[in-house]
Structures are given as structure tokens and as C-alpha cells.
Automatic annotation (TrEMBL):
CDD domains: terB_like_2 (cd07313). Residues 25-140 form the Co-chaperone DjlA N-terminal domain. SUPFAM superfamilies: TerB-like. This is Uncharacterized conserved protein, tellurite resistance protein B (TerB) family.
Length: 146
């Protein structure tokens, strides 16, 4: 029932596999979160670049290319479900908890939490299948310098 509500809310009706490359899905999701407050700060972009490099296991140059693709993908995407579905399809639960922690790193990178970012984080964690407790623990780990 809740999944139906989310699909109606986001305009997403397709329940099949995502059409987004998982390599670009996380960076695109991170960009979406960073842009949620209307300010895509350089500190957020730098954080996303580092996470992207770790995510794809590539060089800084490759990470920059994937990030550029992800920024364009995010700008043209009408919903968040495409990104979360690609990640959920490719990553086991424990890994998705790590993804939520990386997203919190981006949210907190600029030193402030905005209502838009908090609301988007709740939606993203839910779409990734990560429960509220694990999301809160991930946020706390990031806040504590983890």
C-alpha cells in the first residue's frame, strides 16, 4: 500500500527494473540530494566526487566523467525512484545502509540540514528499503566523524 502511494506521489508506475546504470545511479542520487536545498555547494560536489570514485572503483578522472554524466542524468530525471531502484537492484541491504551513510555525508557536508534535504532523505531511505533506525544510525555515524 505504501509503495503504491510512493509510486503515485512520484508519478512512477513502472515496477520493473531500473533503466539507470547503477554506476551513475548513486552519484545522480547524491547530486539530487545536494541540489535539494537550492545550493549545490563546491564542498558537496567534492564530497560526491570522492564517493563516486570509491563507488565505481576508478580513477579521479573516471569519477569526474561519471559525475558529469550523473549531473546531466539528475537534471533530466523527473523522479528519484529510477535512481533508488537501480541501487536497490544492485546492492544488498548492508551495502544500502552504506549508501544511506554516504548520502548523509553529502547532506551534512555544507554544515547545515535543511527541511528539503531531511524530507528527501526520509523518502530515499524508504525507497532503498533502509529502515528509519538504520538511517538515523548512519546519520549519527557521519555526525560523529565516521
Amino acid at each position: 500500500m505504501f509503495a503504491d502511494f510512493i509510486r503515485r506521489l512520484t508519478g512512477e508506475n513502472d515496477t520493473g527494473a531500473s533503466d539507470v546504470d547503477p554506476r551513475a545511479a548513486l552519484p545522480a542520487l547524491l547530486v539530487r540530494v545536494a541540489r535539494a536545498d537550492g545550493d549545490y555547494a563546491q564542498v558537496e560536489r567534492d564530497m560526491i566526487q570522492g564517493i563516486t570514485q570509491r563507488w565505481i572503483g576508478g580513477s579521479p578522472f573516471e569519477a569526474a566523467q561519471v559525475l558529469a554524466e550523473a549531473e546531466a542524468l539528475e537534471a533530466g530525471a523527473a523522479d528519484t525512484v529510477r535512481f533508488t531502484r537501480a541501487i536497490k537492484d544492485a546492492v544488498a541491504y548492508e551495502g544500502r545502509r552504506g549508501v544511506v551513510e554516504d548520502i548523509w555525508r553529502v547532506v551534512l557536508a555544507d554544515g547545515r540540514r535543511d527541511a528539503e534535504e531531511d524530507a528527501l532523505m526520509r523518502l530515499i531511505a524508504n525507497l532503498l528499503g533502509v529502515n528509519d533506525r538504520d538511517s538515523a544510525l548512519a546519520r549519527q555515524a557521519v555526525s560523529d566523524g565516521g
